[in-house]
Design brief:
74% of the residues lie in helices and 1% in strands. By secondary structure, it is an all-alpha fold. A two-stranded antiparallel ribbon has the order 1-2. The mean pLDDT is 81.
């Protein structure tokens, strides 16, 4: 009896799974480059990528709201990640009001409001299901180093020094706010669907935001870096965007792998995130 013929997607997935980590990293890098060129071809106004990133982040929050409202549990979610998210959104909202009031301000306001609602539900209504022992990254381990970094490396624009420091702080905070959530998933090893959808949405948002900055630099032939100021700030901004993307890339790989395999619950192997 002839064996069942594997689908091309299954063959590719099996081949990728067997590759050593260095090859997987190289493949991820090549796919990211190809995606950047594809986006550059089909998206004419690259500012729309940043709006899309904020919209995808907001969609991820909506997924959390649905989870909390229907399942009445916050198991698997990191309260500290939500609090860090609220901190950077609040900082960015203030900077947006005083420095560049536009559509991003409205998107950040809506996302901040829904994030605060999620925090309220986790702290009070659903606190019995909060996995406090798994959410074990002290929040000051993230806030204090980033606050000190923002005092040293911040924009050199004409804005007031307080506004420039806060601008830098929210950029750095956004890059690392997801760490407690990744730690919770690392501790549990099993990620239920709604939490997985939320974290994947964060990964997509980070990639779109990173693509926005990289393509803007290419389009302006490096002029954007000059507009951001001088010194360490311009390269650090790009580095922060890249860090955000790669922090979530590993999880997104296993998310896509699980979805392609028809699995609703994601089981993470040791060492992931």
């Amino acid at each position: 009896m002839k064996g069942t013929r594997k689908k091309p997607i299954q063959v590719v997935r099996t081949w990728v799974r067997r590759q050593p980590p260095k090859i997987k990293v190289l493949l991820a890098f090549l796919i990211a480059i190809a995606a950047l060129f594809f986006i550059r071809t089909i998206v004419y106004d690259h500012d729309n990528l940043f709006i899309a990133a904020e919209a995808v982040h907001a969609l991820g929050i909506i997924v959390l709201i649905y989870k909390l409202a229907t399942e009445k549990t916050c198991a698997g979610l990191s309260l500290k990640s939500q609090e860090l998210t609220a901190i950077f959104l609040g900082s960015r909202l203030y900077c947006s009001f005083v420095m560049e009031y536009d559509v991003h301000t409205l998107l950040d306001l809506a996302t901040l409001a829904t994030t605060i609602w999620v925090i309220y539900m986790m702290r009070f209504n659903l606190k019995s299901s909060y996995m406090r022992e798994k959410d074990n990254i002290p929040i000051h381990y993230v806030v204090i180093p980033l606050a000190l970094l923002s005092l040293v490396v911040h924009p050199t624009t004409h804005h007031h020094i307080i506004n420039r420091v806060l601008w830098a702080f929210c950029v750095y905070m956004e890059a690392f706010s997801v760490l407690p959530q990744l730690r919770v998933m690392q501790n549990t090893k099993i990620v239920e669907p709604f939490t997985a959808h939320y974290v994947f949405a964060l990964g997509v948002a980070r990639f779109l935001s990173c693509a926005h900055w990289i393509l803007q630099v290419l389009d302006t032939k490096g002029g954007l870096l000059t507009a951001l100021g001088y010194g360490l700030w311009p390269p650090v901004v790009l580095l922060s965007e890249i860090i955000q993307t790669f922090i979530l890339a590993d999880f997104c790989y296993y998310y896509v792998q699980s979805v392609m395999g028809g699995q609703l619950v994601i089981r993470l192997p040791s060492g992931v995130v």
